[in-house]
Design a protein that fits this description.
By secondary structure, the chain is mostly helical. The protein is built from 17 helices and no strands. The two termini are about 30 Å apart.
């Protein structure tokens, strides 16, 4: 298989071409991360403009993109190893760009939801291939770790910029401009993708079709059940049926993989201690940080009375800390190793989240900025170290699959978001009879922050 490792004799320096390749790959993942937060802010205006009839139907604008991304990542991860990562990456970026334009010109709800589903399919191709290209372009060691740090920082920054930019763009222009922004970014990335190293297919004979079907349907059902459980009810028949179906399908997937000559996800990868540990850590850090970030948005709007734009600005501390952590991560991992970096990262994330459990009903902006910054700093440290752990020590032919495995906690982490939201709701309902609605809501949020902090601080510290 053709390879193109970018090497430099001077420590962690990436070189001009290395930086151009890295910016291209990170730009694509930044674009998909930006999309998630920017569309969330624009949802109310989208609902009014396209006349969505219910809140649940409007939510499909976000869910229609999320579901295929989570469901198809393992398929595209293996496909990238078979047909060439650069080729699939360009196809994914081109698809995302085209569907972004279609979303911008949508004139009916069904048209927008279909375009969003197309963006989700394309994003599923971009995520694992971008990560696999990164791990095969930069040799294992300081340069790869530095690249992972930049990628982790930009992923987190994409959320913050999307939240702020979504508010600015939708208030100054309209929601269609947010999709046109994604289209413009996509066009630039397609041009820059010509710089990426060419890769050939591996020796995998044929695609594991049964495994692909079972994995895609199982992950689709799992993420769908988690995403809709809070509205449909966690004990409702549709939610329980969906989650039980997801477990059944994924169990069938594992059984199929154990017998297939060329499995979609080789079980030898899933049996590696570093892969299992890295994915567990990823699930914890994404679930708890994602959940805490959502609760912070609720705190700023429902307790402090912030507008959507003010809420976006409230995440500036988290965004700045993410950039700093991405810069420091490679040095920390190089000096102390991934295990130490994960321990430090989870501890710092837990400490920052614990501070948020003391947010007051009024005047809590300083604590909010500092606590969320500390949380975000620890989160990015943990993410970079976890992804480095998952993708290290593997054959190049497995990097596409490893890339999809490393991305999965981002979506399965929705379990943590749903869990923390349920804790906040239950605690608020328990307090409702003895205090004001605002204080009851605050009490629920504080309880959820405390649980998120405890999970981070008590998470597994070694593989």
């Amino acid at each position: 298989m053709a390879t193109d490792i970018i090497e430099s004799p001077t420590g962690t320096r990436l070189g001009l071409r290395g930086w151009l390749v890295l910016v291209t790959l990170c730009g694509a993942t930044f674009m998909t991360g930006l999309d998630y937060s920017i569309i969330t802010v624009a949802l109310p205006e989208i609902g009014r403009d396209l006349e969505f009839t219910t809140t649940s139907s409007l939510q499909w604008v976000a869910t229609a993109c999320l579901l295929p991304t989570a469901a198809l990542m393992p398929l595209f991860g293996r496909a990238s190893d078979m047909i060439g990562r650069r080729r699939l990456f360009i196809i994914g970026v081109a698809g995302f760009t085209g569907f972004s334009l279609l979303a911008a010109i949508s004139f009916a709800p069904i048209m927008l939801i279909a375009a969003r589903a197309g963006q989700g399919v394309a994003a599923a191709a971009i995520g694992p291939t971008a990560l696999a290209l990164m791990t095969t372009t930069f040799e294992e060691g300081p340069r790869r770790t530095k690249a992972m740090g930049v990628n982790g920082a930009l992923l987190s920054l994409g959320f913050v910029i999307g939240t702020i930019g979504g508010g600015l763009i939708t208030s100054g222009l309209n929601w269609r401009a947010t999709m046109l922004l994604l289209f413009a970014i996509g066009v630039l990335i397609i041009g820059a993708a010509l710089l990426l190293p060419k890769t050939a297919a591996t020796a995998v004979a044929r695609l594991d079709v049964p495994g692909a079907v079972l994995a895609s349907l199982g992950l689709f059902a799992l993420v769908y059940g988690i995403s809709t459980g809070s509205t449909a009810g966690w004990t409702s028949l549709p939610t329980l049926g969906t989650l039980i179906g997801a477990v059944t399908l994924l169990a069938g997937f594992l059984a199929t993989e154990s017998r297939h000559a060329n499995p979609l996800v080789p079980l030898r990868l899933l049996r590696r201690r570093t892969v299992k540990w890295g994915m567990t850590i990823g699930l914890i850090t994404f679930g708890m940080c994602g959940g805490a970030t959502l609760l912070l948005s609720i705190y700023m709007q429902d307790v402090l009375g912030f507008s959507a734009l003010q809420t976006g600005l409230g995440f500036l501390g988290e965004g700045a800390a993410a950039l700093a952590a991405g810069t420091i991560a490679s040095h920390l991992i190089g000096a102390r190793g991934t295990t130490t970096a994960i321990v430090i990262g989870l501890t710092v994330q837990g400490a920052g989240t614990a501070a948020l459990a003391f947010l007051p009903a009024e005047g809590g902006i300083v604590l909010l900025l500092l606590g969320s910054a500390v949380m975000g700093f620890g989160h990015v440290l943990t993410v970079v170290a976890a992804i480095t752990t998952i993708t290290s020590g593997l054959d190049e032919a497995d990097q596409g699959v490893a890339g999809s495995l490393a991305q999965m906690p981002t979506f399965i982490g929705a379990v943590g978001v749903a869990g923390l939201t349920a804790i906040a709701t239950a605690r608020a309902e328990g307090l409702a009879a003895t205090t004001t609605p605002v204080l009851a809501n605050l009490g629920g949020l504080q309880a959820a922050f405390a649980v998120a902090a405890a999970i981070c601080l008590l998470g597994p510290r070694s593989p």
